[in-house]
Design goal:
By secondary structure, the chain is an alpha+beta fold. The protein has 2 helices and 4 strands, in the order βββααβ. The termini are close together. It has helices at about 25-65, 70-105, and strands at about 1-5, 10-15, 20, 110-115. Strands 1-2 form a two-stranded antiparallel ribbon. Helices cover about 60% and strands about 10% of the residues. Strand 1 and strand 2 form a beta hairpin.
């Protein structure tokens, strides 16, 4: 059995497989970065959902004759939708680049070797 020590506490953890890390990060840090990466993706998907809702609502308002009184709101929603998507994409790539740059982590899991 091989042992893996947690960063500052030095608590031994029994491992079946040998784990070799490509970077200086501990397993806890790698898992935290994975959670951050997944949260970044969820946030982008929320921006994308908002884009779809704004755009479809705007198109529905523009196409329906009964809603001619609020036609300006439809055009406003059609303009706001792509702006939301653009802001979400810029934020997604900014956070992803920041994670790679600051932590020297590319999102890959550590390699495991059979004993």
């Amino acid at each position: 059995m091989r042992y893996l020590y947690r960063s500052t506490l030095m608590i031994p953890i029994k491992m079946k497989y040998k784990v070799t890390f490509k970077s200086h990060l501990s397993l806890t840090d790698i898992l935290a970065l994975d959670r951050t990466r997944l949260a970044n993706e969820r946030t982008f998907l929320a921006y994308f959902r908002s884009f779809v809702v704004f755009l479809s609502s705007g198109l529905a308002i523009v196409k329906l004759d009964i809603l001619k009184d609020i036609l300006w709101i439809g055009y406003l929603l059609i303009v706001i939708g792509p702006v939301l998507l653009f802001i979400g994409a810029i934020r997604f790539y900014y956070v992803r680049r920041h994670i790679k740059k600051m932590y020297d982590y590319d999102g890959e899991l550590p390699e495991t070797d059979q004993p």
